[in-house]
Design brief:
single chain, alpha+beta, Phosphorylase Kinase, domain 1, Jelly Rolls, seven-stranded antiparallel sheet
Length: 502
Amino acid sequence: MKAIAPEQTLASRYVLRSEIGDGPLTTVWTAEDPTLARTVAVKILHDDCARDPHVREAFLRQATAGARLIHPNVLALYDAGTQDGHAFLVTEYVRAGALGALLADRGPVDPRAATEIMCGVLAALSCAHDAGLVHGDLMPGNVLVGAEGHVKVGDFGFAEAIRAASSSDSEAVPVAGPYRAPELLRGEHATVSTDVYAAGVLLAELLAGPAAVTAPPRGPAPAPSAIRPGVPRRFDQIVERARAPLPTDRYPSAAAMRASLERLGDDRPHGVTAPGAGAPTTAEAPPSRRSVLRSWMLVPTIVVLVGAAAIVGGLALGRLEVGGPLGIRAAAESPAGAAAPAASPAAIPIVAVQDVDPTSDGGDGSEHPDQTQLAIDGNPATAWSTDHYASPDFGNLKPGVGLWLDLGSPATVRSITITTPTGGWIVKLIPATGSGASPEPTASPLQGPGGSTSFTVPTGTTTIRLRPARTGGILLWITRLAPDGGRYAASVTDVSVSGTRG
């Protein structure tokens, strides 16, 4: 093979200028494209890989697949070819550098910057996954950050394609490293889940540096906040889920992980001035005379509304009936000694179900939302499950997680039946608050006949009897997890509510 050198021209078009990077698969050069008068990047496959015709063909074939990806966060691929035994591809040139070099120079970034970078990375992964491609080798060297902070991800699928084509894959592409998911190290193929794992490791390094991605000989890698105390613990939760050892415990997609990061938002307190900033304070103005008068004018309206509510309540309870000179009159009393007929408890339909993991309490806002319907589908072979955690108390990251059961309209709830394959977890049953139907973990829970508010759910099917309570929905608020496969979780195969509707 002819040696690569500056000023050499590839494909009678791209004039090489200078080498700017060297990775496990390719050497990267800047080059000029006089046809379109622009600077490009040229990635040239290492000679030891290019000598194998199967590897060379796999490299070019993967370039064709990668060229289909059109997205602002995906490094654009312009051209590919061979010359003098060298296989190369041409991509857009990003002024700044690879994320790995930036981290080596500047160290970890603040959580806000880490969120912005990772949202770009995860958007690129989502684009590829939607097109049926996985990256398989995500690491800081494959992430480029432009001069204005714009993120580009490149090299989709090249490592896996070359490894599959090589007769000595262990030498062609290194398989060790903290960015590779456990299943890849066992020889399994790259998947969406392995990309999510790598994204979790990348987030940890952005937040806390190399120490957060170097797992000790025993046990999991340390959480970012354990290395860098200024990192909010809510980021620990996202990192832990993304790089969970089991693929089923990770985010189901790159889009789901991105949504969790976006829900965190700006982690800084709003409306707080730093000490010594000298920001002026504004005194609260007293209410104007007009606002006071407006408040008093509301009194007649309130009286009318209260009276209407009393009438509606009286009709509903049977204490009033239509008739009489005013249109409403007291209902006729039942004969002495006669009891009003009581409605028999029956199943109350659950119209919707939702996972609950409040970010305000340290959660990431997501507890397998794609599985929630499995808790009410009536199929004993399916179940909704929480994430898996390192301890029964959620790794001390948050007070609990939940499953919200929307009843559609108010009903008098008398019992809840839960079926679970992993018994031993503890739950509180929290009704909707006020007139709305929404999950509020801090609201007062329902009570059992003896006044209990926490219930341990054993394996199998159990019915929790309750003091009758009228509500439009119930939150299964799980406050302690049960052992499950060496970690801790709670699962619901089926849940149903009994009582009286209306």
